[in-house]
């Protein structure tokens, strides 16, 4: 029910209520009229938002996968200066520009871990095929750097334990870390470069960055091998070095075999040379860092 009270003009109050006494009270008549009159309704308009989504649609690299290195890894350094390049270099001058190397560091943790797993299963021989479109230098750089410090520190600790067991004085050899850096950085840089020139000569060219990637990941097995070499048993150390060297050599040789077979009858000699050179690295590592004399 609704009743009104008050006098005159537009003033006064209306009393609202119902038979069940659920709502009761007094409301100004002007307010009731304002609410009931559609002409008093104000329309509010909102402008379209200018916010942009993230990541942007033009993102490159791992976000959208739109920026990848060329299939032949050394093509980015062999184009003429007039040709546009994804890395931002021009001809061989691109070697001196950081932008030329950016595509080869465009990997994430899952990519690196997957490639490390491949290196620990040497008989599959599928590493080169899987990394042909996107070889990286990020993994090889950190693998070599980690191996340098691990091998030097574990080798130093092994000599320390041997001297303490014999109750003799022990002196730290600072040359271990510098020698390790020269060995591993030099090996993973010079050997693939030499192999690249040899394959070019035998008309079986391979991407230079792809070779660096392959050799870099082949050294990962020496990291756990160095940690196990802390055990002060000479026979055990030789076994560990031999197993690690065999796994690393097999990994490199099998991944290059199918590619090198196109070079003619001498492909077998090249593969054997690659295998023996990798074994030699394991022997040098054992003799210099993990042969303890007291």
Features:
294 residues, mainly alpha, three-stranded antiparallel sheet, disordered N terminus, transmembrane
Class inferred from helices and paired strands? mainly alpha
**Alpha carbon gap, first and last residue:** 110 Å
Strand order of the largest sheet: 1-2-3
Q: Summarize the helix and strand pattern as letters.
A: EEEHHHHHHHHH
Average pLDDT over all residues: 74
Radius of gyration: 36 Å
What is the helix tally? 9
What's the arrangement of secondary structure elements?
Elements: E1 2-5, E2 13-17, E3 24-28, H1 29-36, H2 109-119, H3 127-130, H4 138-165, H5 175-201, H6 208-218, H7 222-228, H8 234-260, H9 267-289
Antiparallel strand pairs: 1-2, 2-3
Biased composition (Polar residues): 46-61
Region (Disordered): 46-86
Membrane topology: Multi-pass membrane protein
Characterise this structure.
Strand 1 (2-5) and strand 2 form a beta hairpin. Helix 4 (138-165) packs parallel to helix 6 (208-218). The chain has a three-stranded antiparallel sheet. The protein has helices at 29-36, 109-119, 127-130, 138-165, 175-201, 208-218, 222-228, 234-260, 267-289, and strands at 2-5, 13-17, 24-28. With 294 residues, it is mostly helical. Residues 126-284 form the Yip1 domain. GO terms for molecular function: small GTPase binding. It comes from Stephania japonica. Residues 46-86 are annotated as: Disordered. One of its GO terms (biological process) is vesicle-mediated transport.
């Amino acid at each position: 029910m609704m009743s009104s009270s008050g006098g005159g003009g537009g003033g006064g109050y209306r009393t609202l209520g119902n038979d069940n006494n659920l709502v009761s009270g007094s409301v100004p008549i002007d307010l009731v009229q304002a609410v009931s009159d559609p002409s008093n309704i104000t329309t509010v308009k909102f402008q379209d938002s200018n916010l942009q989504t993230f990541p942007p649609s033009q993102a490159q690299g791992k976000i959208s996968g739109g920026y990848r290195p060329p299939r032949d890894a050394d093509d980015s350094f062999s184009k003429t200066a007039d040709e546009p390049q994804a890395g931002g270099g021009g001809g061989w001058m691109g070697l001196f520009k950081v932008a030329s190397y950016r595509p080869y560091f465009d990997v994430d943790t899952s990519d690196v871990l997957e490639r490390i797993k491949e290196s620990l299963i040497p008989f599959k021989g599928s590493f080169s095929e899987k990394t042909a479109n996107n070889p990286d230098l990020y993994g090889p750089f950190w693998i070599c750097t980690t191996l340098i410090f691990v091998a030097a520190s574990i080798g130093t600790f092994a000599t320390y334990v041997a001297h303490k067991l014999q109750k003799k004085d022990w002196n730290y050899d600072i040359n271990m870390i510098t020698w390790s850096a020269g060995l591993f950085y030099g090996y993973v840089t010079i050997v693939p470069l030499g192999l690249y020139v040899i394959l070019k000569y035998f008309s079986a060219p391979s991407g230079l960055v792809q070779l660096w990637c392959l050799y870099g990941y082949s050294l990962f097995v020496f990291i756990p091998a160095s940690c196990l070499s802390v055990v002060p048993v000479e026979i055990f150390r030789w076994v560990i070095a031999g197993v690690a060297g065999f796994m690393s050599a097999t990994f490199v040789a099998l991944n290059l075999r199918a590619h090198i077979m196109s070079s003619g009858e001498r492909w077998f000699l090249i593969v054997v040379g690659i295998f023996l050179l990798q074994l030699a690295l394991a022997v040098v590592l054992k003799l210099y860092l993990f042969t303890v004399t007291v």
